[in-house]
Amino acid sequence: MTPQRRATCEARRLVALAELLRLKPRRTSELAERFGVSVRTVQRDLEALRDMGEGVEAVSRGRYRIPHVHHRLSAVEALAVHAAVRLLYHHSPTRSPAYRSALEKLSALLPEPAREAALRSAEALQGRPRDDRTLELVARAWFESRVLAFEYRSPGGSGRWRNKELEVYFVEVSRDNLAPYAIGFERTFHRAILTWKLSRMRHVRLLEDTYVVPPTFDPNRYLQNAWGVVGTSGGALETVRLRFAPEAAYRLEEGGYLDVTVEERCADGSLVVRLRVGTDSAGFPLEILPWVQSWGARVEVLEPEALRRRWLEEARQVAARHCDVR
Prior knowledge:
This is Helix-turn-helix type 11 domain protein. By secondary structure, the protein is of the alpha+beta class. It is built from eleven helices and twelve strands.
């Protein structure tokens, strides 16, 4: 390891160490195991933090802390964000270490006994498979206005990995699959603002090239009528009409579906609703299909006809494959 690389690693360890000590008192042996260094190295790091004015205090023999500082989030705000981050962690195809560190920081803002329970739940996330730095690099690309280079394999394409260079304009989590996506201008081939799923990227790296986000870019306009993350980057908007059976109607009326408009309440208790959704480049409302299918037999697609045909065909395929129904 070069001296420069060693210095960078030490600096990052100091930052992470300070963050942990602000959460709760820690033993030097615990910190040594967490960072994979000796207890003596941790003791030197504690001295370095003191020299930096971090105010490291000895709580008891071998246990240290940095006094808690005021944060802007209220306890209820922290709880809301904490729940959202846990949801992202459990559903994201990749496991960024940033999720765990965010959960630990948010836990510190909760009152006891919630704080201790939340911290314990974050500790259980250590060592999950497929940790990677994609989210970190995408974030840095956005924050530092640096071009992001990666290889990408699109579903339904040739199946080959293609080199991409992206100017990141925004990061969005799809409400369809809860996966993070980067939105930005791809400059090598498409030369257009498109959406890119982080879990489909590999060999991600930052270039020295910088860029400026155009003032005309508005994430709200771009994602308008997106059911997941496909908004104005796809085809034209499409009106979808669905009929929900009585046993599902009450769940729909409970709320949580911002783009759904009730069109008719039928005498039998069923519900006809209308929504406007974005379509893919072929003009098909692909993102809405998995949500419709999740309701099983409790929903009927009324229009558009292309969606109705696709929905019925896939239902027939399921029945034919598993029930031998013709």
